[in-house]
Design goal:
With about 280 residues, the chain is an alpha+beta fold. The chain has 2 domains: about 110 residues, Ribosomal Protein S5, domain 2 (2-Layer Sandwich); about 130 residues, Alpha-Beta Plaits. Helix content is about 35%, strand content about 25%. It contains 10 helices and 11 strands. The strands form 3 sheets. It has a 4-stranded antiparallel beta sheet with strand order 1-2-6-7, with no helix packed on it. Strands 9-10-8-11 form a 4-stranded antiparallel beta sheet. A hairpin with a 6-residue loop joins strand 9 and strand 10. Helix 1 packs antiparallel against helix 3 and helix 5 packs across helix 8. The two termini are about 15 Å apart.
């Protein structure tokens, strides 16, 4: 997930340059791979878990990742993917990117000579800007379009309540709405010098969690505003939006406080509510 996101400019090709603190969560989808030798490459997908809108066609990143790996690696194998969804689709949490990266890591273990590290990284980036992060998911300061990652240390475990209004947002549409609101470049701020100190100060934490895309996401999904207010009044120390939305998160003093707040938020109609925590290592 993103702990804050700033848009600092655009490249000549139109892609936005950003900076963001990426942090893995202890909440994730489940991915199981079954691989067999075969005369020709084939990939199938079985979906389980909650009905969170996950596609089973070519738009599914896990499926695309497996097919791209076999093609680029020149591997003839039958791959069966079992995907248990626990995170919503198009929610700004990187669920699909994480699924794709997990498939790539699993296939590389099965076929270690198929791709070298650079090839795997390039394949991951071709699937999506967030996919490379999940190849080695640990807290990192991410810049560019998502391809530059600098590991960071000192991020404590943050107790979170994740709240999604049940409305998926397409990243391209959110960026389009952002462009309609502003075309101002910003000076990169860089990572905080002391993450532990920032995490312990409510004002500094709120500043870190600022997301330049939230106003655009709110324009497309007004329910984001309702969830933000609900998190704020439930006792969150700070509230942010992850990625391009529509998932908001509140930071709480501890897991018990987060659980109590989540119980109240579950009364918000149509919302997907979960308690999670950031973790140091992938």
């Amino acid at each position: 997930m993103n702990l804050g996101l700033r848009i600092v400019g655009r490249r000549a090709d139109g892609h936005h340059r950003l900076e963001s603190l990426f942090a893995p969560l202890d909440l994730a989808d489940g991915v199981a791979l079954h691989v067999e030798s075969a005369s020709a490459a084939s990939v199938s997908l079985q979906l389980a878990g909650e009905d969170l809108g996950a596609p089973t066609d070519e738009s599914n990143l896990a499926l695309r990742a497996a097919r791209a790996f076999l093609e680029r690696g020149g591997v003839a194998a039958r791959v069966e993917i079992g995907l248990t969804k626990r995170t919503p689709v198009a929610a700004g949490l990187g669920g699909g990117s994480s699924d794709a990266a997990t498939v790539l890591r699993g296939l590389l273990r099965a076929f270690p000579d198929a791709l070298d590290e650079a090839g795997l990284e390039a394949l991951a980036l071709s699937l999506g800007a967030d996919v490379p992060f999940f190849l080695d998911p640990r807290p990192a300061w991410v810049t560019g379009v998502g391809e530059h990652r600098d590991p960071v240390r000192g991020l404590p475990a943050l107790a979170l309540v994740l709240a999604n209004p049940g409305h998926g947002l397409l990243t391209a549409e959110v960026f389009g709405a952002y462009d309609a609101l502003t075309d101002t470049d910003r000076t990169p701020a860089g990572p905080p010098d002391d993450l532990a100190a920032v995490a312990g100060d409510d004002d500094a934490l709120a500043a870190l969690l600022g997301n330049d895309l939230e106003a655009a996401a709110l324009r497309l999904c007004p329910a984001i505003g309702r969830l933000r207010r609900a998190l704020e009044v439930s006792g969150a120390r700070a509230v942010g939006m992850s990625g391009s939305g529509a998932t908001l998160f509140g930071v709480f003093t501890d897991r018990d406080a987060a659980e109590a707040a989540a119980a109240g938020l579950e009364r918000v109609g149509g919302a997907w509510i979960r308690v999670a925590a950031t973790r140091e290592c992938g």
